[in-house]
Amino acid sequence: MSDTSVLKETISTRAQTEPARVGDYFALLKPRVMSLVVFTGLVGMAVAPGTLHPVLAFTALLCIAVGAGASGAINMWYDADIDAIMDRTQARPIPAGRVTANEALAFGTALSVASVVLMGLVINYVAAILLAVTIAFYVFVYTMWLKRRTPQNIVIGGAAGAFPPMIGWAAVSGDVSVESMVLFAIIFMWTPPHFWALSLWRDIDYAKAGVPMLPVVAGREATRKQVVLYSILLFPVAIMPYFLGYAGIFYGFGATILSGLFILGAIKVFAKKDESSAKQLFAYSILYLFLLFAILLGESLVKAVV
């Protein structure tokens, strides 16, 4: 019997002796990731042309949240074997023995279907199709195809996390526009330096699990160069909403300053070559995306009031 088979059998046995709690199922939804997904989806709704009844807006956000959480649960089902190996993920419900892999799969599948169907019936089919594509991309393209096969897993797979503002936009407007695709592009370009900063100080964990993250395959030096490159490429994309006219001067100024600091942080990672600078950039990258979209949201709220 292979090591993986033994590990999965051990996990299954442990789960049978430790009943799952509500909190365990909530943890399957990856709530920290979900919160960022919901926030960017909300901003997409706020800046989109048109209006949506508050109840419908809440329903759309709920569908986005549930869809994101559902794909996270399926991801944990598929990755249960490597989650049990990596220090960062050993406490998750399946490897910790609190939920069986089959229960996680059933839970994620049911929520996936429910979120897409509800979005289609209550909001519109464009938003529902985008939500379905998001879930499918994260599960089949990133989790099952890319993650264990190529160091480009984050570059391509990052598209899954970039869809929420497009879904929010489509929920209000019923279509996909250049403006919503720019919001998609911001998150898409942000994802590689964000995750590579993490992998620079978690590369041993990934290597142990056999996940070909860039530092594991190409080395830390090559990864640092890519972090700088993508941080520079992010800059013009981040300020594009201002030049397209659906973000104001405060956003333009804020995006310039925030993106400049991002580049400086990336250069520091390249120059210092230490774990501390990589951790700092990872933490800042989360703050960066939040502040960028928060400014967009703030401007849209001011416009609505004025």
Automatic annotation (TrEMBL):
Bilayer-crossing regions: 33-52, 58-78, 99-119, 125-146, 153-172, 178-198, 227-244, 250-270, 282-302
Keywords: Cell membrane, Heme biosynthesis, Membrane, Transferase, Transmembrane, Transmembrane helix
Pathway: Porphyrin-containing compound metabolism; heme O biosynthesis; heme O from protoheme: step 1/1
MF GO annotations: protoheme IX farnesyltransferase activity
Localization terms from the record: Cell membrane
Catalysed conversion reaction: heme b + (2E,6E)-farnesyl diphosphate + H2O = Fe(II)-heme o + diphosphate
EC number(s) per entry: 2.5.1.141
Keyword Cell membrane assigned: yes
Topology in the lipid bilayer: Multi-pass membrane protein
Keyword Cell membrane carried by entry: yes
Enzyme class: transferase
Family: Belongs to the UbiA prenyltransferase family. Protoheme IX farnesyltransferase subfamily.
Task performed by this protein: Converts heme B (protoheme IX) to heme O by substitution of the vinyl group on carbon 2 of heme B porphyrin ring with a hydroxyethyl farnesyl side group.
Note: Carbon 2 of the heme B porphyrin ring is defined according to the Fischer nomenclature.
UniProt protein name: Protoheme IX farnesyltransferase
